[in-house]
Amino acid sequence: MSDVPEVPPEAAAPVVTPTRVVIAVCLFAPFVALLWVSSYAKTDPTFIGIPFFYWYQMLWVLISTALTMTAYKLWQRDQRTRLGGNR
After folding, report:
1. For 58-74, how does the pLDDT look when each residue is reduced to its tens digit (9 = 90+)?
2. Closest Cα partner for 87 from 19, 79, 2, 43?
3. 17-42: per-residue pLDDT in tens?
4. 21 inside domain
5. Which residues cross the membrane (predicted)?
6. What pLDDT shows up at residue 13?
7. What are the two backbone dihedrals, phi and then psi, of residue 47, each rounded to the nearest 5 degrees?
8. Is 18 exposed, middle or buried (0-12, 13-18, 19+ CB in 10 A)?
9. Does 6 fall in a domain?
């Protein structure tokens, strides 16, 4: 007999899969877009009288929500498949 205990599947080492890469990109994209201030630090073009600087950031609130929701749904699906679909 071996003295090495078996590792349950939930405690196995993390695996990099294409789904997890997409999840990471979905969560990382808003940080890159909003921390790169020089790309949107301008007033033109305006949208209904609002300078670009402001409406660009507000647009990213909506985009970030959609990306976070997508990442969450992908994570749920990844966990269901990883744990054998017993959820």
Report:
1. 999 999 999 999 999 99
2. 79
3. 899 999 999 999 999 999 998 888 88
4. yes
5. 21-41, 53-72
6. 67
7. -130, 115
8. exposed
9. no
Average pLDDT for the chain: 86
Give the model's pLDDT for residue 66.
97
HEC per residue, 4-73? CCCCCHHHCCCCCCHHHHHHHHHHHHHHHHHHCHHHCCCCCCCECCECHHHHHHHHHHHHHHHHHHHHHH
- Tokens found for residue 79: 């966990």
Within-domain flag for 70: yes
Number of domains in the chain: 1
The one-letter amino acid at 12: A
- Structural domain including 27 reads 16-79
